[in-house]
Structure formats: structure tokens, C-alpha cells
Amino acid sequence: MKTAHINDLGKKQSIEKHLKGTAELAQNFANDFDCGEMGYFCGILHDIGKYSEEFQRRINDPLYTQKVDHSTAGAMEAMKRKNPPAAMVIAGHHSGLLDGGSRKADSESDGTFFGRLKKTLPDYSEWEKEISTNDAGIPGFCAESGFAMSFFVRMLYSCLVDADYLDTEKFMNDGKIIRGGSASVEELCASFENYIQKWLCRTDFQSGEQKALCARRNDILKECMENGESFDRGLYTLTVPTGGGKTTASLGFALKHMRARGMKHVIYVIPYTSVIDQNAEVFSGILGKDNVLEHHSGVLYEIADEEGADSDAYKKALATENWDMPVIVTTAVQFFESLFANKSSKCRKLHNLANSVIVFDECQTLPIPYLEPCVAAISELVKNYKSTVILCTATQPALENVFARYVPDRQIREICGGMKEMFVRFKRSVISNAGVLTLDELQNRIAAKEQVLCIVNRRKTAQEIYSRIPTEGAYCLTTLLCPFDRKRKFREIKERLRKGLPCRVIATSLIEAGVDLDFPEVYRQETGLDSLIQAAGRCNREGKRDPQECNVYLFRLEGDDASFVRQNADALREIMRKHQDLSDLEAVSDYFIFYRELIGRENLDQKGIIKAFQNGIDGKVFPFATVSKIFKLIENQTKTIYIPTEESNRYIESIYGGYSDRNTFRRLGQYAVNVYTEHYNKLWEAGCLEMVRDYVCVLRDMNQYNDDTGLQMDVETGFGLYV
Asked: Cα separation of 568 and 483, whole Å?
């Protein structure tokens, strides 16, 4: 028997059993987009290189340390059968999808796919005695464009690597399956319907404007649920005013649609990590925490092609997320960077996007420098992978013309009718321009109000204003606070607002997306129209007050040029000249169209991602690895710092001891703060940080973290140096 893996009990898994097990799983995954034969083809060939005597010696003899390439053999066999997509997938199933390179010019040393095919391999011909395979056809849609082909390769790659991991994981656990166990779609819908009965009955004990507001929300919810059952798969918008119950309504559409169309997952994509925990908590409360996966930044592991399958890295890789739960809440960064990634850790989950309902919350935040490739990817999911996509927001970014370039035969359809009338009925505040304010003037205005929200553009500005206002009921909300502390503060703020106690909140834009808070007055530093309207959604949210007495003030802060939102602000000023009512749907549409014209179409794909897959880069066709490096939604990449507390120290200590799994890091994520490199370096150079093992950084100078404002921007170490 030829060996593929050896587990901790010393048991051996044969190559034949592993290949067939992986092939069956990959086939099942690829069936979701009608490419099961291709999935099986990749699975049955992916590890045939392990039939070589050299690999058998490596896996069975601990003293033999010679590196052995076992991935290229399957790729070569796939190419003999004229199947380049499968060959690319198999070649990279451990090391990652390679740049295609040049068929003629590349050599083995170039590290490209075509270079890899020129390697001299040890004899692996024994595979033909145990394994047989049928050729698999490449789907016709791959001929539409180089982008369509590259997208297919990545989706097929996901099927293979997830199948490979899962089959190996099962063997390593001595046949035990530790995944699954989530509720069925019928059970999820029943849980949702049980939850909304309480929601629908709230009007029974309310009166006046609050009762009318709840009735409007219920109308939206009912329409979403009805249309979720009747609408076919496709591309939709859900345009609901702030405070209209968009989150619950979109979940209602998604669950009903998933059940009616036999779909597998609901994937909720949120723009900011700062509110993902809140949405995940809401969904968990409705559907049960065992049915909702919260996934954003975390620790990932890669496996080099030549590493042994029993290495520590391989075992840790088995713990990375593959989105195998019915409801997933993730971030736009995680979602899109995975779609353009080339490594197994990020691509593994992608096949679960097929035949799923994908909701983009606050879709106006789709990243402008990558808007074209993001729209192209969404279009592929709708066209060729049986997905339904919902663009959900109060401020639709008028993307019809952009989508028309990629799905010209499909119209974007609105889920809720009567939008214009709906927005008039939901209007609960008055937006006005306060002009230029000094820091002192802004401070005095905030101090004069018992309950007020002020949203600024920078975290440092928020900390500075917070330090100048009365301390009673004062809060500073930024991403410099770890999620655990943010959650605590949100609860306290809600309670103070409910009781009518003093509550002055200084925050960054994190408070604008899906945060259920209700202030009588709001200040918003100059920004784009979408952010201004989102900020207005925190004013008189529950309709308890006369809308004419609830003010939202747009202001410019003297001395702050806010250069990173300059074009947004310029577009807003243009719309203010043309429209008296900034919340009008036509004003919103005009704003986004003008804004995109202002920055130019060439800036909707600043890195040339579409052209890269159409024409190649520097002579490299299908540049998967190159694109993965340049597709970064956050250009200034952040680093994670974990804050030690009585609770988090348990998880930190387990990592010290060499024990970690996905649950450890998910729990530890509640005590994480992401900072830019410059901030991180200052803390490191001041001796405030400690590296645990080689991938977890812990704050050790707690003078740098304040429970009220979070991680300090100005590093002043409390450590003493003694010479």
C-alpha cells in the first residue's frame, strides 16, 4: 500500500483512499455550479506524485529529509488531457495558485505554472495501476473572457483544497467528523419566523409616531419575505431608509430565498470590522450561535509544497475557516481579498459562495479603487455560479452602468417597491450646514447638549474632542478600542439614552453602519453624502421626537483639511448646490454618479486587475500570485495587537504553551486592535509589545491602552530603563 498520510496513532492512509475521498468531496462542492466532473478530475489527480518512491521514503522514514514535489505530477497529467484550469489548480493546491507565466520563455527556475511543467520529476507511474480517470470538459463560460476563466480556476481551486483538507482532517482524527451539526434551512426559517412574531406584535403596545414607524418597518419586512420566496436567483437592490429595519428584512429575504431555491448559505458582507460583532450577535440571537459564523481578520497558515502532510503547519491549516455554516457574517476586506487571493487559506472557502445568497450591507462602501474588479466578481457569481446578490443600503450608489459592462443581459431589480414614498415617510430629522467650526466652538456645542453624537473623520480627533468635554456620560468610540470594550460601551450608551441620562458620544464612522442608537442631535464632520445620511440615521431613529426639532449638522473643522475625504466632500458640495433635500433619492444617485465622474473611470480599477487577467502582466498570463499581492483593499496594511485582560490572558497563555485552534483565535479576536504600521512600529520601538511565538503580538505596557479611549495614538511608555 502506498501511503498518503500517517496520523498521530501511527495509522496510515493509502493514496488511493485519499484521492478518491478528496475527489468525491470536490465533486460535491463543484456540483453547486454544475462542474462536478471537473471537481472529481482535480481530486483524483491532485496527489498522484505521492506514488513516487522518493515521496514514500520521505513520509515513512523520519530521517529522510529530502524535499519532494508531489503536486506537479497531477498538473502534468491534466495538461496531457488538455485541461489547463485543472492543471493550474492541482499545481498550486499546497503552494498557492501560481502566475501562469509564458509557455515558451519560462524555465523551471521562474516559479511560474509553465515553468513548473518543465520540471524533471521522480517516477510516479505507479498511480495508473490503482487510479483511473475520465477527462472533464471545461465549462463554456470560461471562453467569455480571461477574467471569467481566472474566476473559474479560483473557484475550482477552492473545491480541491477544501476537499483535500477535509479528507485529511477526517483521517487525522481517526475517522471522526468534527464539523457540521448546524440547523437545516427549515429550522432556520422557523427560528426567524418565531423571532419576528414578537417584532410584528410590537405595535400592539405603542402609540403615535413610534407605532407608525414600527408599522412601516413591518411592511418592509413582510415585502422582503414574500419576495424572497417568489423571486428567482439574480441581482437585486434593497433600498431601505436608515432605521427601516434593513438588517432583519434582508435576512428575512435571504432565508426565504435560500429555502425556496434550494440554496446553501447566507453570506452577509459588512464594510467594517467595527460592527461585524454586532450584526453577528443579532443573527445569533435570531438563529442560534451554532448557526452563525463570524469571520474577519485572524491567523492563517500556509503549507509549502514540499512540507510533510503531518507537519505542525498542516495540522493548524486544518483549523482555518472554510465557511461550512449556514449563515456567515464577514467583512468586505475578507470577502474580496479572498476572491482575488491565490493561497489555500483564503481561497478554501470560495466554493461556498456558489448557490448562496450574498448580501452586501452598506454597498455604497464598495472600494472605489477596486470597484470594477469587485463588480466583475459579483457579476460572475450571479451569471455562472447560481448565486443571488443583494446590494443593501439607504444610499444606493447607482451602479447600474458599472454592472451593465459585466452582466448586460440582466437588470438590477429592487426588492421593495415605492421607495420614494417610503423615504419621505421615514424622514425623522433636518440636515443643515453649520459651516466652519473651531475645536472650541464644537466642544462648546457638544457640552451644551445632554444627549448628542459627534462623528469625526480621524481617531485622533475623536480622542482629542473627548478629552475636552464633560466626563459624565461621555464616550469615545473608535477602532482603537478592542471589540469587547466597544460592545460594553454600546450597551452603556443604549441604556443611558433609554433612561434620558447625559450621553455625549464622540465617534468615527464606525458608528454609522448598522448601529442601533437614537440621539436627538448629531454633528457630522464634512464627508461624502452617503456618510452624512448614515449619520442622520442615528438622529431620532425611533421617531420619538418631532422631526423638525431633531437636527443633523454638517460642519468643517478649522485646521483639518481631511484630505482623504476631499473628493467625497467636493462631490457633496456640488450636490448641495443642486438639491435642497440631500436625503432625496435623486440627490443620492446624482452624488454617486458625479463622484465617480470626478475621480474618472480609470480610477475604478487603479491596479489594472481586469486587464491583468485579460492581457497578462509583464508577459505572465493568468497572474494569480501577482494579483494577490496587489489586490489590497486597505493599502496601509494593519497589524494586530492583542490587549491582555483577565479573560484574554487565558487564550494568550494557551498560545504560549503551543496550543491554538480556530476557536482560540476567534475568542481572542474580541481583545484585538488593528493599527497601521507606523503606529505599530512606535509601540514596538518603545518596548510596549511582546511577540508570542512568531505570529501573535501582545501589548505589555498597559499605559498605552485606556478603557475609555482605547489604544493611545501618542506613544508614551511607562516602562523604565535602568542602566
From this structure: 28
